[in-house]
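Q: What structure does this chain adopt?
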Amino acid sequence: MEKRNKCSFGSGFIFATPIPSGPSISAKPAFSMAAGAKDAPSTLTDVSSTEIVENKPLFTFPGTLAKPAISTAAGAKYALSTVTDVSSTERPLFAFPAQPKLESQWRDMDWTEEQKTSLMKTISSYRPICHEVTQARVLLLGPVGSGKSSFVSSVQSVFNGRVTNRAMVGSSLTSFTKKLQSFHIHCQKGEDPTGLVLCDIVGLGGGEMTGLTLYDILSVIKGHVPEGHKFSPDQPVRSETVGYVKKPSLKDKIHCVAFVVDASKILTYPKGLSTTFQQLREHISELGVHQVALLTHVDQICPETAKDVTKVYESRIIRDMMSKVGALLGMSTSYIVPVKNYSSELDLDASTDVLLLSAVDHILQYAELYFQDNTPQHTGPKID
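A:
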């Protein structure tokens, strides 16, 4: 009997997709929800390896800015509902503290042009410690509209010396990215590419057509998914997929995962998303892949940072938001870095560049840990 994969990411519709005979995944607790619990937060249940499971929605994203509320409708224990019509008398999304600015930076940061030059040199010259691999592949994972594609374009803009949109960026509520795209970050024109590849895939949630399953994500990380593969809910990655990599080498795999979270939407994310993130992190950790997180759109939650990005580490608002992100992901804040992507700007800003480059340097440090863990240790010649 054909097994079914019940771990599917999408908003409103979940599809029972067959688990192919491709890469093996050990039996793990599956995602499920109590019957009748529309948009309910996910829970863990023990499912036997032969059981055919009906897929239920894991989480949904509201179509407008909305605050989550608890519904007590019959059969919907702890079900998640949303209030889309928020009156002016409701509590604001963000309550700014009386003293939003701290006396000193809560992380040391040098905002000088010299620091920007130093970071660019470090990133440009980076090469993995493992001789089998010439570039570190980093997968960006996050909800629709969190800023994954914008981060790719912003990093490339810094190295180009001007603002460019290399990765196509959308403004709709559904994911603009539909397929696996790998972006080789290049230095100045005519120079070799850096040792960094940023991989972008469809966002989590945000519509029935996202078609991203847990199995697909793990297949990408294991290196089975071919470049340009378009994700579809009724066509999961399998060994018969065109271009499927049956025996991926180390250079085909993902060497670090960077979760991307929108600071301006933290309070409107559904409660079930935290469970989703943490279950994702557990599966990814079992593959030996290190994870970090990027907190985007920090300028949208802190007026001082919007005026001057160098105030980001003096902001009490952003520091508190970092803690909320840590709770959402089940991750220490030491793995999380704030960034400001280029969006409406036409010219580069040195301080914004420093913040972006610091994030890239942070990512590469954890990618390098992966190579250290997976590089064969040479103990010298064998003596008979």
